[in-house]
Amino acid sequence: MSAFLWVEDFEGGQYREFGHALFGRALGLAANDFPDNESGLRDFMKSRQVELTTSFAEAARRMDENLRDYDYVVLDIDLNLLGEDVDDDLPWVLPLLERWYGYDPKAKSVEDSYNAARQKMKEVAGYHLFIDLVMNRGFPRERILFCSNHGNHLDTINKSFEPARMEAPSIYKKSDDTVKEWIADQSEKPYIKLRRWVILACQELLEQMRRGKTHFTMRDLLPNGDTQLAPINAEFLLETLARLLPAHENSEFERKIAFRLFARTLTQDWDKVDYKNKEKKIKQPVKAFSAVLVNVRNWTSHDAKALSVMDEGDIAYLFLIAMRSCFELPNDKLEDYEKALFPLIGDMADIDMSELAQDYMRSYEELESKYVLLNMADSKDYFSIRVNALQQGGKITPVEQAKLLYQILWHELHWGRDKVFSPQPGYFSKPAFLDQLTRRIYRRSFHS
Which residues have C-beta within 8 Å of that of residue 156, sequence separation ≥ 6? Predict the structure, then answer.
């Protein structure tokens, strides 16, 4: 599920009712599954990537500190301005009360002035959050949902958008089916899912590194004695990748540019590795991953058009094999981010090994028919080397490049060189990651 910031003050104490009305369909839960008190609902929703805030000031503070943590915002309009920590909350409220609602700290009756201004702002507090999100922070307005039982009565506020040449946001009641459908639909959008789980993966791996629970194993792929890469490089990479995919999906063209930049950054250090070194005890899957990543690095560094046609599944594939190559992760289980990202690549395929053998043959023959046209004096046998030679010679299109990145993995795993198919090795079927990976990429590799 995507990450939501939910702003609701529950003036009527309807915790269970509102939680189910908004998020029940997206989470696949019945009303009785939701806690019926604030603290319980906060914890319950947070464990499901929904951050609940119950006052204007708390929401404003969350937006200021952690907006990147949220993909969507669900707003009530009529909100309590202050939470339990009044001293921390007042600085977020007083300037607005003075500027827009007539609060005068020098008035004869300061308390009356404050209370009158507070009541006026309370009725429209959600609009202030909306304007701050869209106008000041550049948050995509299409990812903000106004959900309130008060909104239909605020004609004056809605009309105030007209002089500013802004379209007033739509407002829905919490019981409206549109609300349930919107939240359920948004939570599974491929781009949003990719971006959110890349961020979460980078955060998780950073935390594991700093706590000594994983190690930066990409250093083991460097030539003997080479010290170019250190854990600080891994930390910088993870911090960069987490910020690289923009919050806005924008146009198809802009998304493809973002994907290509992501792939380039992801593989920026793969020119340093020596994964073919026979003296190193590098496992065959890591060699296969490395063959893919080295080619991505070389193509995106030397050809501005290379890999310009990729989708969310392609990026998920490259990210997942890169993380497995860079960090020490258990082979017998999947990380949470892997479970979330794998479906972006494709459904699980039932692989018939005899059919797979034919796929190997066909893919090798198709590549060979192009390779002979290069008339290279020094003929190369390895599938990945031939693919790279064809790319350098301008003989494969960006669409073909993406497909060949999957085929490289298969040929490196099975040593499908010289038209010889090896039987399924043990490492192919036993580890959870490789089982998921190969079955998810199968159709993209040979039948797309």
Answer: none
Same domain, 235 and 369: yes
End residue of a domain, out of 188, 216, 238: 188
Contact 296, 307 (CB under 8 A): yes
**pLDDT, tens digit, for every residue of 351-388?**
887 888 889 889 988 988 888 777 765 666 688 988 99
Q: Are residues 74 and 101 in the same domain?
A: yes
Within 8 A by CB and 6+ apart from 20, the residues are 29, 30, 31, 33, 34
Q: Are residues 231 and 361 in the same domain?
A: yes
Identify whether the C-beta of residue 286 lies closer than 8 Å to the C-beta of residue 221: yes
Distance CA 392, CA 293 (A): 16
SS3 annotation, 270-283: CCCCCCCCCCCCCC
What pLDDT shows up at residue 284?
A: 84
Give the bridge partners for 27, in sequence order: none
278/230 same-domain check: yes
Residues 255, 168 share a domain:
no
Start-to-end Cα distance in the chain:
27
Q: What is the DSSP letter of 312?
A: H
Instruction: Give the helix/strand (H/E) hosting 182.
Output: helix 177-186
Give the angle 295-435-341 at the CA atoms, nearest 5°.
70
For the stretch 403-430, pLDDT in tens is 999 999 999 887 544 444 555 555 555 6
What phi and psi, each to the nearest 5 degrees, are found at residue 270? Answer: -80, -5
**Cβ proximity of 229 and 272 under 8 Å:** yes
pTM for the complete prediction?
0.88
pLDDT at 243: 94
* Structural domain boundaries enclosing 113: 4-188
* Sign of the torsion angle spanned by Cα atoms 270, 206, 345, 254: negative
d(CA 377, CA 396) in angstroms, rounded, equals 20
108 with 201, same domain: the answer is no
225 & 113 share domain: no
φ/ψ region of 102 (left if φ > 0, alpha if ψ in -120 to 50, else beta) reads left
CA–CA separation, 129 and 280 (whole Å): 56
Q: Round to whole Å and give the CA distance between 312 and 252.
A: 12
Structure tokens at 23: 């998020």
Asked whether the beta carbons of 118 and 111 are under 8 A apart, the reply is: no
| pLDDT for the residue 115 | 96
Of 171, 188, 205, the residue that ends a domain is 188
| Cα dihedral 319, 71, 191, 138 in deg (nearest 10) | -110
Q: Are residues 339 and 352 in the same domain?
A: yes
How many domains does the chain fold into?
Answer: 2
